[in-house]
């Protein structure tokens, strides 16, 4: 009898990718890295985590390796500032948006207006500092340092205001949770399936909102010491501290952008 087994297809070296199945994870990763925020968060993690690695390498006497890591982190920091060079455009867009679509309370609107004002001053000062640092525009060292300090002070104002913003959001969340709980009690007596489904959806949305608030609070905890450190002339805050708090903020911002691009 003849051989009835299926003929094996010879592998074309140029078609080696056919050995792999389409990957949802790879699709998500490409989408994530295709955004400015996604790219920034990857580089942010490398930038700050490298400070922790550098600290460790210096502790064990590997000075050359520490210098190599620093040589990688420095251009990454530069690149991240360049990514923010058109940051004023989405900021202006957001300023217009909140005036036409205000947040739920007047207090939140006031906080967001103040945050926007702080950022309107932060961005140009940071850009000016960067241009002076790289000798693109002539700036005396003392002038450039003052510009850098004030840039970070406005950033620090934004971060402090963000704690107030998150606290107000948390209060609104608790209020909404209580309303849904009362609604659930009423719904259980009526035994309406449509009401139960609606309540379940609202509870799910609340859980997502709660995760976002907690995540943003952790990011803010990471940013606060950094902004205060860079706002104080001759600050004694250690570089390892910058690495730890910066890495904390980077990880949770990475998670936020990853979820938003899913």
TrEMBL record:
Query: What name is this protein filed under?
Result: 13541_t:CDS:1
Against Pfam families, the record matches this protein to: PEX11 (PF05648)
Q: Where in the cell is it found?
A: Peroxisome membrane
Primary location group: membrane
Kindly state which keywords UniProt assigns to this record, in alphabetical order. Membrane, Peroxisome, Peroxisome biogenesis
Q: Name the InterPro entries for this protein.
A: PEX11
Keyword Membrane attributed: yes
Q: Which GO terms describe its cellular component?
A: peroxisomal membrane
What processes in GO biological process is this protein linked to? peroxisome fission
Q: Which domain of life is it from?
A: Eukaryota
Organism of provenance: Ambispora leptoticha
């Amino acid at each position: 009898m003849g051989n009835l087994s299926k003929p094996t297809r010879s592998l074309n070296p140029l078609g080696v990718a056919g050995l792999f199945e389409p990957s949802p994870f790879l699709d998500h990763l490409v989408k994530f890295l295709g955004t400015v925020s996604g790219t920034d968060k990857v580089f942010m993690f490398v930038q700050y985590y490298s400070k922790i690695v550098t600290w460790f390498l210096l502790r064990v006497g590997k000075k050359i390796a520490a210098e190599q890591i620093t040589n990688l982190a420095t251009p990454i920091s530069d690149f991240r500032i360049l990514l923010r060079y058109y940051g004023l455009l989405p900021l202006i867009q957001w300023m217009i948006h909140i005036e036409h679509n205000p947040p739920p309370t007047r207090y939140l609107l006031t906080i967001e207006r103040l945050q926007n004002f702080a950022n309107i001053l932060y961005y140009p000062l940071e850009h000016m500092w960067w241009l002076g640092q790289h000798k693109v525009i002539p700036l005396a060292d003392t002038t450039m340092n003052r510009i850098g300090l004030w840039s970070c002070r406005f950033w620090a104002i934004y971060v402090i205001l963000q704690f107030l913003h998150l606290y107000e959001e948390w209060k609104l969340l608790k209020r909404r949770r209580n309303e849904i709980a009362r609604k659930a009690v009423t719904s259980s007596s009526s035994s309406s399936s449509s009401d139960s489904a609606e309540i379940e959806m609202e509870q799910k949305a609340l859980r997502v909102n709660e995760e976002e608030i907690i995540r943003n609070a952790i990011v803010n905890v990471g940013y606060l010491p950094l902004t205060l450190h860079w706002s104080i002339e001759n600050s004694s805050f250690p570089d390892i501290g910058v690495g730890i708090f910066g890495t904390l903020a980077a990880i949770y911002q990475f998670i936020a952008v990853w979820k938003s691009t899913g």
